[in-house]
Amino acid sequence: MAKRGFVVGPILDITYSPQYDLTSERVLSWLIFMIQHKRVRALAIKPPCTSFSPAAHPAGRSYSQPRGFCEENPKVWVGNRLAFGGLTLLWVALHAEVLGLLEAPGKSKMAWLTEWLYMLTLACRDSRSLHGVLRFWKHSPKGEQIFDVQHESRLHNAEVQPRS
After folding, report:
1. Across all residues in the chain, what is the average pLDDT?
2. Which residues pair with 127 in a beta bridge?
3. pLDDT tens-digit readout, 127-156
4. Cβ contacts of residue 57 below 8 Å, gap of 6+?
5. Cα 36 vs. chain centroid, distance in angstroms?
């Protein structure tokens, strides 16, 4: 994006700095403030998918229990905290009319969270599901489409065509 002339902020990830710990309420509050006061014009959220992956072994959660079998398990707790933080930021972006994108693998158990399903009811025309590839959930302040996606349901294959 920077090569295209956009001003971009840092990648907020604890691996870059302890100040970027997205499980921290302080960091989440700061990001919410930045979004609500239009200091962020767009955001892309990609929560880690490790504990939500169907390939995780041992499995800490299932599709019928996407919050986890034991929410106190550190791996499950961190996964939940990051997923809920990402959904919160997307919800704030939706209400602040800031472009937001959340990305998760197509078979991620994250999409079975009650909070995810609730968010779909708020902006279902902007949610797009790609089975086996990636799941993108996009909100655009003006409702413009970034991709046309044809799909039968959340679990079926989809064709993605960039808009012209």
Report:
1. 75
2. 137
3. 444 333 345 555 555 554 443 333 333 333
4. none
5. 18
26, 34 contact by CB (below 8 A): no
Q: Is residue 58 reached through a cis peptide bond, with omega within 30 degrees of 0 on the bond before it?
A: yes
Rounded distance between C-alpha atoms, residue 65 and residue 55, angstroms? 15
Residue 98 near residue 88, CB atoms below 8 Å: no
Q: What percent of the chain has pLDDT over 70?
A: 73
d(Cα 27, Cα 23) in Å, to the nearest integer?
A: 8
**Which tokens in the block code for residue 11?**
């990648």
2, 25, 78, 118, 140 from 74: Cα distances, Å: 36, 17, 6, 25, 34
Which amino acid would we find at residue 135?
R
Q: Report how far residue 46's alpha carbon sits from residue 137's, in angstroms, rounded to the nearest whole number.
A: 11
3-state secondary structure of 149: strand
Long-range contacts of 29-37 (CB under 8 A, 24+ apart): 31/89, 32/88, 32/89, 32/92, 35/89, 35/92, 35/93, 35/96, 35/98, 36/92, 36/96
